[in-house]
Amino acid sequence: MAGVHVYDRFLRQDKLPHIWCSGCGNGIVTNALIRAIEKTGIDQNQIVVVAGVGCSSRANGYLDFCGLHTNHGRPLAYATGVKMANPKLHVIVVTGDGDSASIGGNHFIHACRRNLDITTVIYNNDNYGMTGGQYSPTTPTGAKSKTTVYGNIDTPFDLCKLASAAGATFVARSTVYHVTQLADLIAKGIEHKGFSVIEAMSCCPTLYGRLNKLGDGPAMLQRFKDQAIPVQKARQLSEEALQDKIVTGVFTDRKDRPEYSDQYQHVIARAEGRE
Ligand code: SF4
User: In this protein, which residues make up the domain named Thiamine pyrophosphate enzyme TPP-binding (predicted)?
Assistant: First the structure.
């Protein structure tokens, strides 16, 4: 039918047009998430999308699923409550680099540790977009932001290494240039039974891109194309050779750890004397 898009059923039409800047990568990540959900074939009514605060978390307002738009840094705490209350639901968290790794950093590492069956999609644009372009825990060393005008002297987190080390059982990364791969990885994360983290390298041309002279949205996409290197190839290179690269693919895919809500059923059974 004319004027109807195949993904319209996943979007709240009354909330459009969206607020994102021209050239922002957030729409691409959100599109990849919709593609991934469609690919899994999971009933739309069985999905809950939980967001924190930030430009990325605004995605929750546009996605037509049951959802919660929560406090800054706290989506994983709310998502944990939803999943524990009804383990049959598929819970997806949409969050940013600041929301997940700074304000919500403690929630993040403990969610990884627990291995509750939640999928977390991190829109990583290397800065706090919504609050004006302050530096975040993933801002590269030397990069400029509103709060590092002479260059960032911090060492950024590698969010995938952090997630894997903290115990997440599925961890992957792609970029907004590699849309098909990104959607595939998110789908794998949703289908994985356990805590999954998919880092989506996204672009913020309005703030991070402008302050670091990286050009407009298409120019930043081109950079992702040039910087990306598959994890299998990266394993053969030195740390120096990987300096400005973005390693993509699956880093962790473990099936050896029990899922938290399953474990909790045993606790209930023991409390009731059934085990
Ligand atoms: S400020 Fe940056 S992250 Fe936020 S909508 Fe604009 S381009 Fe996107």
Answer: 53-199
- In the chain, where are the structural domains located? 8-271
Question: 8-271 in CATH: which number?
Answer: 3.40.50.970
Where does the pLDDT of residue 4 fall: very low under 50, low under 70, confident under 90, or very high at 90 and above? confident
Q: Is the C-beta atom of 80 inside 6 A of ligand 1?
A: no
Q: What is the pLDDT of residues 82-116, one digit of tens each?
A: 999 999 999 999 999 999 999 999 999 999 999 99
Percentage of the chain beyond pLDDT 90 is 97
Q: Which atom of ligand 1 is nearest to the CA of 55?
A: 4
Centroid of chain to Cα 126: 13
pLDDT tens-digit series, residues 170-198: 999 999 999 999 999 999 999 999 999 99
Tokens 């819970």, residue?
A: 91
CA–CA dist 205, 216 (Å, integer): 5
Three-state SS at 85: helix
* Token representation of residue 117: 């069956």
Residue 134 alpha carbon to ligand 1 centre in Å? 12
CB-based contact 30:11 (threshold 8 Å) = no
Torsion of CA 188, 193, 194, 196, to 10 degrees: 10
